[in-house]
Amino acid sequence: MSFNNLDTLYRQVIMDHYKNPRNKGSIEGEHMAIDMNNPTCGDRIQLQLQLEDGVVNEAKFDGEGCSISLSSASMMTEAVKGKTVEEALEMSKLFSAMMQGEDVDPEQFALEDIEALQGVSQFPARIKCATLSWKAMEQGVEESEEA
């Protein structure tokens, strides 16, 4: 597949997650909520996590922002559901490395759609948009471990 075709496919995946977000809404019952924002561009995310016995039982988000921020939140919530906290944190580390331009094997991700965000690493101002929900997840897990 040529670079232009791959770029078009990635844009379509990002726009699909933006227009048809997965896991947007609220978790019923006991959960934690983490609010984060990116003051540079106005992205705002509220991530809700339900952790049970070291596993991300449920993950949902709400918020507003650019297509990169919201599609990344959609992809992240899909990817971490059912994963252990350790696996979710490892995915976050891999995603961060990918955003810094490091070579990361997409097979390491449970959701291949995440690879569509790889091109964001070429635009340093947009990296914070893509990583916002992942940072919220890391913060939520950290706070849960401290409690």
TrEMBL record:
GO molecular function terms noted in the UniProt entry: iron ion binding; iron-sulfur cluster binding
Pfam families given in the database record: NifU_N (PF01592)
Top-level taxon of the source organism: Bacteria
Coiled-coil spans in chain: none
UniProt domain NIF system FeS cluster assembly NifU N-terminal: residue ranges: 10-129
UniProt-listed GO biological process terms: iron-sulfur cluster assembly
Family: Belongs to the NifU family.
Name of the protein in question: NifU family iron-sulfur cluster assembly protein
Organism, scientific name: Salimicrobium jeotgali
